[in-house]
User: Fold Blast:Adrenodoxin, mitochondrial from Drosophila guanche.
Amino acid sequence: MLVINTCRNTARLVQRSTWIRNSFPIIGPSISSRTFSLGLALRKQDVVNVTFVRANGTKIETSGKVGDSLLDVVVNNNVDLDGFGACEGTLTCSTCHLIFKTNDFEKLPDKPGDEEMDMLDLAYELTDTSRLGCQITLSKDMDGLEVHVPSTINDARAA
Ligand code: FES
Assistant:
């Protein structure tokens, strides 16, 4: 705790002091990046903004980080989507069904595998641009992604 406070205070001091930044140009960035590496803040280039659009048109703006799945984004942002992600990403429920805009769908790097296709077949309101959120991994070029949440979900485990 004491170490973290010391780093924060040192970083603040360096940021505020023009004389220190001008005299020791290497110190400022070095201390700043050390602060980030402690996990106190996400680097801006790792943040991916994602908007979930409910069937009634309500938009829920969230953010995740590169490498997160869309299921991670829902969980980490406490997005209230009833029943979403019931199997926690083990490809057994289809409750994480999301609908992409055609442009975004075509840019997704991975095509759905057989297991995902089998689960999608059980999803309600299936479209040509449907995917399972637990199988979509965020990359920086997805920043600004908008996905639609179907009005009903089907937990395939209940069948
Ligand atoms: S969370 Fe169950 S299939 Fe994605």
